[in-house]
């Protein structure tokens, strides 16, 4: 039996309810969309008492199948005003699954001004005052929480930016080693957590019985099949396992899609200094605490994470991901992994989304606050955020607000959220996703990089985005990393067989697709009720008339055709 735990912060009351049978196969993003559409007034203030913050584990959470323990966190976004689901690796979902918890739902706002911790175990769920943690950075907070509650707990927490309800703030989740570096970063959900005065969620699964599996023998068989496929996949071993997501730098740069100097072009002359090979070489040369391959969640065999050390072998940050390299690196004209690592660490410790902050710094550079390529200047801007100066408050509010205040016309954001690290004039299917996604400029809403289309031509891009949005929603609902989809070569029935053997109910690929479509339609309905319409499903105007010099293209996918993305038969 799975439970949904509701935390009424106004009354300081915790209630547990048994999930209804129809929720057996509804988790993650699907459950978030269902709760939000049924229980939240879409026009509510995202930082007010009527919004809710939802931690939702996927259907397979709590098992050790590779790549199935991503956590989905959702609520109405203060950055975009839309529905928002932001997922991450780490141990949060795994420990929730082991405790039989499908979701944690935070409701209301405390009457007092105290900061709280939610502690969850097999024996109890309770709110505890977060004495001494006010204003503390994410890394020190996690260390202190592990000292108080034990080294084996899982933690989801916010930094000072979340406490101050800055719009670019995210929620950090601890990894297998207890490092709070797996971020549900996008959409400003850290600000929602801060508005509810929750510093951290501590999940203690020491006495957990583990998730119920209806057919354990069948489950183990499918799990082992997936493990064998991943282990024997040379492409995975030679790309993601060795170089991590940074392996994409060369690919996107060659396609003219690597955002450079505030998306003014898609090719960066310093790409060789920040690519996957350079990252791998630095880690292996410096040795010490560095690891070129690292698992972000229990059971992961792809191991695309890393631990990046400085020249002294001591960890600078873990991990450095492609999106961070693209936004804090090339987008800012910075061609030094050490500087990108420092910026990454500061964002993590303050509790900020590296994509959104990379967008904001890029806009500030275009405004002349500092120059493109000024790595120390970028570090100083994050120090301004730590000091909570007026400039710091602005940067921590994201690219859109920063651009408007500084008078910049080229703001690379949709629905208020900075685009991820792919220029939509070079990969036009992603441009469709950015424009039509229910959540703003989010590549994980519908990644078309591997779609069999000519990325520079408008033909076929709407269909590619539609298929990708359905496929990615499937993974978000199950709680799987979408890299596993590539590893198993698109054989989604393997995931269906896992779900079927776990729940005792047959699950076909078509069932998963219908769940994904229903999720997308619920999200669309929420946004419509919140006041969004087809006029909001656009890219920033400069993408339509400013050529990307690296490709000689503009974004020219037909707007009428784009309206068909969420029209399902």
Strand order of the largest sheet: 2-1-6-3-4-5
DSSP strand tally: 17
Overall geometric form: globular
Please report the distance between the alpha carbons of the first and last residues.
34 Å
Q: Residue ranges: pLDDT <50 for 5 or more in a row?
A: none
Quickly give the structural class. alpha+beta
Largest sheet: 6 strands, mixed
Strand content: 5-15%
Give the CATH topology of the domain at 3-203. Aldehyde Ferredoxin Oxidoreductase,  A, domain 1
CATH top level assignment of the domain at 3-203: Alpha Beta
Question: How would you explain this protein's 3D organization?
Answer:
This protein has 569 residues and is an alpha+beta fold. The protein has a domain at 3-203: Aldehyde ferredoxin oxidoreductase, N-terminal domain (Aldehyde Ferredoxin Oxidoreductase,  A, domain 1). Helix content is 39%, strand content 14%. The chain has helices at residues 28-39, 92-98, 138-149, 160-163, 189-195, 216-231, 234-243, 248-254, 276-286, 322-329, 337-350, 354-366, 375-387, 390-395, 399-406, 428-436, 461-478, 483-487, 493-503, 509-530, 542-545, 559-562, and strands at residues 3-8, 13-18, 52-57, 71-76, 83-88, 101-107, 116-120, 125-129, 154-157, 171-174, 180-184, 198-203, 291-294, 305-309, 315-317, 413-414, 417-418. A hairpin with a 5-residue loop joins strand 14 and strand 15 (315-317). Helix 6 (216-231) packs antiparallel against helix 19, helix 10 (322-329) packs across helix 11 (337-350) and helix 10 (322-329) runs parallel beside helix 12. The relative contact order is 0.13. The model has no long low-confidence stretch (mean pLDDT 96).
